[in-house]
Amino acid sequence: MAEKLMKFSEAVKKYDPVIGLETHVELCTNTKLFCPAHVEFGGEPNTQLTPVSLGLPGSLPVVNATAVDFAIKLGLALHCKINEWSQFARKNYFYPDMPRDYQISQYDKPTNGEGYLDVELDDGSIFRVPIERAHIEDDAGKNTHVGGADGRIEGADHSLCDYNRAGVPLIEIVTKPITGVGARASEIAGAYMRTLRDIVKALGISHARMEQGNMRADVNVSLRPTPDDPLGTRSETKNVNSFRGIEKTVTYEIRRQAAILDDGGEILQETRHWDEATQSTAGGRLKTDADDYRYFPDPDLVMLHITPEHIERIKAQMPEMPRERRNRLQSEWGLTDDAMRDIVNAGALDLIEDTVKAGASAQGARKWWLGEISRAANEQEKSLDDMPITPADVAQVEKLIADGKLNDKLAKKTVLGVLAGEGTPAEVVKKHGYEVVQDTGALEAEVDKALAANPDIVEKLKSGNMKPMGAIIGAVMKATRGQADAKAVSGLVMKKIKG
């Protein structure tokens, strides 16, 4: 039975929404957080294991130093207070895919304390998201439910467990309650996640592939009558792994909770799950408070001591942050704010920068990535990164145009050939004979034919009326299968009519 929903515009007028995000970022270390088991996405199930990741008696964890340094990098990027002393704790909870049946996390003594992240919204305004902490923990394994619909546990007759992911290092970034979001709650949630994704990629600490589970978020939503009232009861929608899903979860929960409150009902503090198929959330279990996890310091792990000198060494390794980089490239490329926003929203910034580094102009690189390649990606429902064409390929197409070997029409055909898997631009041009006609004699002969077939146009051109020039150029293009250079044709026509 479908839940009752209030119109979003009405809901945000009647209630003040407050959101919060708990984002899990899987780190791209070579080994797990507490053992030397190899980390690789998509490996054969239950092959990336050690006694520690299996929780076997007598096995002892050893902290992965690279994971700690990655956490410090992220803490610096999020303006967090890096605590000199931090501690791992055992979080006791039934994890069917965690062999030792507790998670090693951080609780009251995290590596990264309070901070903030400024995010840019669609209109260019900046919204500051307050960060509560960014702590280190290890991931659980993965359950696959067999026999139910779409791999869900409902209706399944048995489940399979892959422990490869168990013990993979994570950083969980927990925001404080994000207030003052109003009707832009969904937009702010999406902008925050996109900004966070860009930062972890720039830092080189995570692949941040949401579809692979490298990055996912628990989305908290609550409503209250006015900003002056206490926070309302929140729902927590677990493990949402797409930007659109996060935005839609916020919108749906605001509409759902507003309808319940408007009818005099109460909001349950519960976990929920986003269902992409129905575009709705569904109830899970009543939400457990932190006290029920029975946190206590892990007796097998000593406290982490992060010295000021070590933090300074990490600071010296920090790359240029995404916003500063975007501002620099925008200035170098001479783009407007809207043009740069289009590039960022399309996920094309890295590709265009690499294409420029490969020798193309910023204008040419932008034209192809946001034009033909983007259209093909949309048709195939792929990201630009997944398209079978490289920045070097696009730069080569631009060079062929600059060298006069391709015109725009032939360049488009060449790009489509590369996307179809026919090889490099040079190989596609050679295979189909796309190169612009370089034989001046052959081109001149086609110009003569076009002029002879259109004496009325010739008279107009001779009288100074250049508008019909396109008809002659079009005739020559047709005769040469689009392989003539329009500028060369125009030059030959003018030479002919001037006698």
Word description of this protein:
The chain is 39% helix and 18% strand. The strands form four sheets. An eight-stranded mixed beta sheet has the order 5-6-9-1-10-11-12-13. The protein is built from 17 helices and 15 strands. It has three domains: 8-314, no CATH class; 321-432, no CATH class; 440-497, Orthogonal Bundle (Arc Repressor Mutant, subunit A), CATH 1.10.10. Helix 8 crosses helix 9 and helix 9 crosses helix 11. The relative contact order is 0.10. By secondary structure, the chain is an alpha+beta fold. The model has no long low-confidence stretch (mean pLDDT 90). Strand 5 and strand 6 form a beta hairpin. It has helices spanning 8-14, 65-77, 185-203, 243-262, 308-316, 322-333, 337-345, 349-357, 362-370, 372-380, 391-402, 408-419, 425-432, 440-453, 455-462, 469-479, 486-497, and strands spanning 16-26, 85-86, 89-92, 102-105, 115-120, 126-138, 142-146, 158-162, 169-175, 215-224, 235-240, 270-275, 280-286, 296-297, 304-305. It catalyses: L-glutamyl-tRNA(Gln) + L-glutamine + ATP + H2O = L-glutaminyl-tRNA(Gln) + L-glutamate + ADP + phosphate + H(+); L-aspartyl-tRNA(Asn) + L-glutamine + ATP + H2O = L-asparaginyl-tRNA(Asn) + L-glutamate + ADP + phosphate + 2 H(+). Residues 350-497 form the Asn/Gln amidotransferase domain. Pfam families: GatB_N (PF02934), GatB_Yqey (PF02637).
